[in-house]
């Protein structure tokens, strides 16, 4: 039987698509479905051979009987809000200041890429050493100028901000580079016209530039929010959740439950709750993006 | 002539038999086979030291799977679940045996001992024999003897002028090492924040591991062991600190535990400012750099003390060693009352590292040969005495304490007086038949994580000991219920040697 041209085209299309779809099903859909099914079971992997069906017990456990989950979530939310806000503010300011062509601009761009290019776990250990309360270079520098030592990683009040500070150092360049590209894509005529009409620099920035780059801002904030929610390496490397659990993130708690304690059912359930929270926040941001 | 021949024959025979027995690696042929070893960064030095010799003697090859400590458990559990035979043997903390052996993931060793023999099992210290067994069966090879001990600065506590000032302030003479935790508190306060060693730098009273997710829980357990029980053959009230053995009710909300939490919270006031950032590594470097008067740790500090170049030790020859401080009272949880009695309890913190062979191992015979090879009396002594540097191995055989081998310890960098004191402190603890064993039941890591979680808040001073103990109690009840109360009770009783 001879295939029609349209059918032939379909076959080729599916032939190209199938490897991708197969990969997607195997590597993304199957693990998701598998972990969802696990989340309705009790499976203490260290002593149980097979999972036991327990329905919604894990979810009830997490949401209503586990204060540690809520504490970790609260820290994560505070971290995301602060870190992304600072990254956006500093990135926006830097991009605005450096948007014009000047000597050494390319070099600066490459330099700003360095923190982003470092593996997060390396960043964590690098900063851990620099922030060491007794032998860290930062406290030594503070002492040299007559300032007192700061308990960067051992104070319950300071440690959460230390994690935010390191994350800001690492990811502000992402904001900066994305916003710099957005600035460069803006038509200069609008700024010129506004200037001729007597608008000040601040008025131009607020009423012309920001509205024009708003879609870019929302997009990069969305990317950073999703990524920041997965906070793990910095906590793991710098504070190990401490002091006094002040920096335990949700990802870290999921890791402890599922990987360290091998409580696979509860770990899977926790991951799903986590996923739904991030999805919810992403949906809100998506909706906001449409309005701008 | 005939008599002479018989004599010669007998002499040769007598030499050959022990030679053949000693050459434990030489009698096997593993040519063409590879043994995979899972080991973390601390113990890789032991593997590196013996690997070339073992390979030469047996013809086998060794593939070392090196992981950091934090990744050791993950790697091990993934293998236990997937059973792919990734490794044939692994060095793990004995405290994991509750899950590892309780889950039936390892080869039982008694049949292998009978088949291949084991060099000088009776030479292994009784406490270490205990930690290698689970539910009455040997499931792990001894490799390291771990217990906390007291370290104190002789150049502070032994100074008559300081002793006199202390007597004037507190009205009594302290002991060296401190006799109980009340003395620890007073000594720590007295020697806190002044330059008592006259090196131009401020010293502090006490230091210990306090960083979260490291080993801080064992520091408070040192104190709990004194206030929550008394030494004796394990029963519900003696040498038992974790659960009521009849009901599996956690004891962590009893006044004994609360008193221990209160004590450790108070000690933080006399410690260096960076205390909450002290993991085991930070603490050891800080202590051998001469920062504090008292310290509580495993035997590793004693080894690091001997090496000014490698570890920056400024206290070589200045440390005194002793058992854990005791207490003037303990809580009788059955009769719910304090019993006022001077006493001291030894506690096998962590218990020590052990080698296990997973059920999925492809080369059980090679794994057995390797572990027996490195842990035999002669080789393990070289790892423990410092000749191989800092290996993470502490003495675990009686022969390691033999006065005849002190020369080897001296070759390992030890001062002869120091080694005698060090050995005595460890020997007294590890030979104590009533030493409290560490928690070794399924979910052990979860119980300890919960303890670490609430202890961290106490150490940071953001909660009270009473609140922390109450919250810990709730967590432990939940964990026990998740694992099954009856089975946990059975396992716990077995771990104490109770029927």
What does this entry look like structurally?
The complex is a heterodimer of chains A (292) and B (499). Chain A has 292 residues and is mostly helical. Helix content of chain A is 74%, strand content 1%. Chain A has twelve helices and two strands. Chain A has helices spanning 5-38, 57-65, 67-97, 105-117, 120-130, 137-144, 159-185, 188-196, 201-229, 233-239, 250-260, 264-291; strands at residues 41-42, 52-53. The radius of gyration of chain A is 24 Å and the shape is globular. The mean pLDDT of chain A is 91. With 499 residues, chain B is of the alpha/beta class. Chain B has two domains: 24-146 and 351-419, D-Maltodextrin-Binding Protein, domain 2 (3-Layer(aba) Sandwich), CATH 3.40.190; 149-345 and 441-496, D-Maltodextrin-Binding Protein, domain 2. Chain B has 21 helices and 15 strands. Chain B has a five-stranded mixed beta sheet. In chain B, strands 8-9-7-10 form a four-stranded mixed beta sheet, sandwiched between helices. A two-stranded antiparallel ribbon of chain B has the order 4-5. In chain B, helix 19 (444-459) packs antiparallel against helix 20. The longest helix of chain B is centred in the first third of the chain and has 21 residues, at 2-22. Chain B is globular. Residues 12-26 of chain B have low confidence and may be disordered. The A-B interface holds A 42, 44-47, 65, 68, 132-134, 149, 151, 153-154, 156, 236, 239-246, 256, 259-263 and B 70, 73-74, 77, 80-81, 99-100, 102-103, 211-214, 272-277, 279, 286, 442-443, 445-446, 449, 453, 456-457, 459-460, 462, 478, 482-483.
């Amino acid at each position: 039987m001879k295939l029609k041209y349209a059918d032939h085209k379909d076959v080729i299309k599916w032939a190209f698509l199938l490897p991708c779809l197969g990969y997607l099903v195997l590597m993304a859909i199957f693990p998701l479905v598998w972990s969802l099914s696990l989340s309705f079971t009790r499976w203490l992997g260290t002593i149980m051979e097979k999972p036991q069906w327990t329905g919604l017990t894990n979810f009830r456990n997490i949401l209503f009987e586990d204060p540690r989950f809520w504490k970790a979530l609260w820290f994560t939310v505070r971290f995301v809000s602060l870190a992304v806000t600072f990254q956006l503010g500093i990135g926006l300011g830097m991009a605005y200041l450096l948007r014009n062509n000047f000597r050494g601009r390319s070099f600066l761009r490459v330099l700003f890429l360095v923190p982003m290019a470092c593996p997060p776990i390396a960043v964590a250990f690098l900063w851990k050493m620099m922030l060491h309360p007794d032998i860290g270079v930062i406290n030594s520098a503070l002492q040299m100028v007559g300032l007192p030592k700061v308990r960067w990683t051992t104070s319950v009040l300071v440690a959460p901000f230390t994690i935010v500070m390191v994350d800001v150092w690492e990811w502000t360049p992402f904001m900066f580079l994305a916003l710099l590209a957005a600035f460069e894509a803006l038509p200069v005529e609008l700024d010129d016209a506004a200037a001729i009409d007597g608008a000040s620099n601040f008025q131009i920035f607020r009423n012309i530039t920001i509205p024009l780059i708003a879609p870019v801002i929302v997009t990069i904030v969305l990317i950073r929010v999703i990524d920041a929610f997965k906070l793990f390496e910095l906590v793991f490397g710098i504070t190990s959740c401490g002091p006094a659990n002040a920096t335990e993130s949700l990802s870290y708690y999921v890791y402890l439950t599922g990987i360290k304690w091998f409580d696979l059912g509860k770990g899977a359930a926790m991951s799903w709750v986590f996923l739904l929270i991030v999805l919810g926040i992403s949906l809100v941001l998506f909706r906001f993006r449409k309005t701008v | 002539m005939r008599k002479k021949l018989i004599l010669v024959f007998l002499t040769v025979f007598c030499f050959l038999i022990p030679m053949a027995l000693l050459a434990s690696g030489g009698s096997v042929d593993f040519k063409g086979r590879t043994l995979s070893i899972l080991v973390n960064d601390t113990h890789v030095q032991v593997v590196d030291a013996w690997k070339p010799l073992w390979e030469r003697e047996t013809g086998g090859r060794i593939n070392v799977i090196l992981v950091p400590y934090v990744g050791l458990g993950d790697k091990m559990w993934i293998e236990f679940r997937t059973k792919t035979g990734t490794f044939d043997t692994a060095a793990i903390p004995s405290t994991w045996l509750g899950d590892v052996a309780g889950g039936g993931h390892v080869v039982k060793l008694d049949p292998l001992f009978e088949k291949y023999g084991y060099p000088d099992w009776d030479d292994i210290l009784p406490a270490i024999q205990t930690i290698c067994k689970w539910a009455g069966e040997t499931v792990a090879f001894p490799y390291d003897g771990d217990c906390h001990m007291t370290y104190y600065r002789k150049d502070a506590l032994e100074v008559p002028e300081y002793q006199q000032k202390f007597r004037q302030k507190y009205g009594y003479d302290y002991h060296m090492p401190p006799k109980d935790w009340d003395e620890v508190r007073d000594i720590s306060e007295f020697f806190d924040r002044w330059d008592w060693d006259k090196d131009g730098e401020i010293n502090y009273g006490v230091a210990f591991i306090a960083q979260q997710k490291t080993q801080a829980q064992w520091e408070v357990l040192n104190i709990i062991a004194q206030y929550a029980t008394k030494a004796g053959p394990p029963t519900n009230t003696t040498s038992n600190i974790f659960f009521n053995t009849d009901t599996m009710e956690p004891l962590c909300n009893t006044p004994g535990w609360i008193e221990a939490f209160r004590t450790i919270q108070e000690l933080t006031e006399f410690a260096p400012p960076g205390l909450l950032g002290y993991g085991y590594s930070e603490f050891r470097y800080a202590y051998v750099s001469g920062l504090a008067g008292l310290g509580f740790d495993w035997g590793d500090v004693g080894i690091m003390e001997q090496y000014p170049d490698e570890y920056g030790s400024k206290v070589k020859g200045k440390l005194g060693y002793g058992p854990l401080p005791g207490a003037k009272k303990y809580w009788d949880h059955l009769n719910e009352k304090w019993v006022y009695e001077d006493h001291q309890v030894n506690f096998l913190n962590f218990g020590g590292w052990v080698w296990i062979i997973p059920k999925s191992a492809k080369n059980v015979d090679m794994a057995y040969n390797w572990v027996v090879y490195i842990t035999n009396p002669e080789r393990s002594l070289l790892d423990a005495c410092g000749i191989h540097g800092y290996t993470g191995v502490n003495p675990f055989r009686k022969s390691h304490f033999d006065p005849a081998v002190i020369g080897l310890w001296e070759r390992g960098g030890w001062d002869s007086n120091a080694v005698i004191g060090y050995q005595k402190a460890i020997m007294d603890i590890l030979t104590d038949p009533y030493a409290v064993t560490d928690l070794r039941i399924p979910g052990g890591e979860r119980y300890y994580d919960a303890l670490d979680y609430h202890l961290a808040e106490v150490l940071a001073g953001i909660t009270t000991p009473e609140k922390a103990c109450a919250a810990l109690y709730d967590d432990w009840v939940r964990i026990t219920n998740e694992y099954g109360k009856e089975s946990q009770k059975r396992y716990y009783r077995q771990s104490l040697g109770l029927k």
